[in-house]
Amino acid sequence: MKPLVRVTSPILPLMEDRIDTDIIFPARFLLLMQREGLRDCLFRDRRFTATGESIPGSVFDDTRRTGAQILLAGEDFGTGSSREQAVWALADYGIQCVIAVSFGEIFAANAVRNGMLALPLPRADIERIAAVESATVDIEAQEIICSGFTIPVRIPSATRQRLLSGLDEIDTILSNDREGIKAFEADQRRLQPWLYEDVT
Question: CB 59: neighbour CB atoms within 10 A?
């Protein structure tokens, strides 16, 4: 993963509740298991007709939103069935930060595992952000900066450190517990030497 320190970009406002994983990444695409190339599946039925034409008036075609890396939503974003492709498709589209009133637990966990911030905020704060066209989400300073106002946020320490460092779960364990792992391996080598090929 790449470190995620701050994101400055246009905002993609999807100001509705209960946008579940089937809306984000429709089930008919579940056989696609690669992380890249999923952007065309993202919100497929909100962006395109059944014959593949863009839906008129879609926020995704608003030129003011081009290059958006920050997505806004209401309650229960990413609930429903567990599919990591929902996060992969958002990332492939360019989204690095999703701000919503609340999240599906599995979606939020998948987001941080893939270097994406899933940030819960009160609806009133989200509506203030939605009223502007761009914002900066500063993970390091724990604040959202918009034209004319700043909103302080609280990011759980473990999530914040993982995003800032760009470490995945295994790298985080190795970084935090390296000495403990070495001590365990030394004890195991002494107590169960037959497990190690290099012991004669």
Answer: 17
- Claim to verify: residue 15 and residue 100 sit in the same structural domain: yes
Same domain, residue pair 143 and 117: yes
What CA–CA distance (Å, rounded) separates 88 from 59?
20
- Asked whether residue 183 falls in the same domain as residue 138, the answer is no
Number of domains forming the structure of the chain: 2
Question: pLDDT 10s digit of each residue in the chain, 200 long?
Answer: 899 999 999 999 999 999 999 999 999 999 998 889 999 999 999 999 999 999 998 899 999 999 999 999 999 999 999 899 999 999 999 999 999 999 999 999 999 999 999 999 999 999 999 999 999 999 999 999 999 999 999 999 999 999 999 987 777 777 778 888 888 888 888 888 888 876 55
In a shared domain, residues 104 and 159? yes
Q: pTM, whole model, 2 decimals?
A: 0.86
**By residue range, what is the domain housing residue 51?**
6-167
In this structure, how many other beta carbons lie within 10 angstroms of the beta carbon of residue 121? Answer: 19
